[in-house]
Amino acid sequence: MQIQELIEQKLLDGLSPVHLDVINESHMHSVPANSETHFKVIIVSERFDGESLIKRHRLVNGILADELAGGVHALGLHTMTATEWEKKHGKVPDSPKCRGGSKG
């Protein structure tokens, strides 16, 4: 199983999201072709209701602890409740451009 698929499955199982996007952004960084090292996660879950942003991130990071300890170098998180997602009209900021290595 690829890392992206593993991340998706773990988050689906662990948080039962109403919306989930796991986007491989490795191609935007100085890594070999077909790498799975940099991801952006957009996740909307009822489990985030009443939780601070740091608690939401800790929850996701806990679920993905093995991946973060292994090959995943960066994980951009957008963690929202359904109400927050609706207020943002399903939009999140673009990821910043790579500032390191040959792509900087």
Care to describe what's here?
By secondary structure, the chain is α+β, with helices and mostly antiparallel strands. It has a single domain (3-92), classed as BolA-like (GMP Synthetase, Chain A, domain 3, 2-Layer Sandwich), CATH 3.30.300.90. The chain is 34% helix and 19% strand. The chain has 4 helices and 3 strands. A 3-stranded mixed beta sheet has the order 1-2-3. It is globular and about 40 Å long. The termini are far apart. The mean pLDDT is 89.
User: What strand line-up does the widest sheet have?
Assistant: 1-2-3
Instruction: Provide the number of structural domains.
Output: 1
* CATH superfamily caption: BolA-like
Distance between the termini: 31 Å
In the CATH hierarchy, the third-tier topology is known as GMP Synthetase, Chain A, domain 3
List the helices and strands and how they pair.
Elements: H1 3-15, E1 19-24, E2 38-44, H2 53-63, H3 65-69, E3 74-80, H4 82-87
Parallel strand pairs: 2-3
Antiparallel strand pairs: 1-2
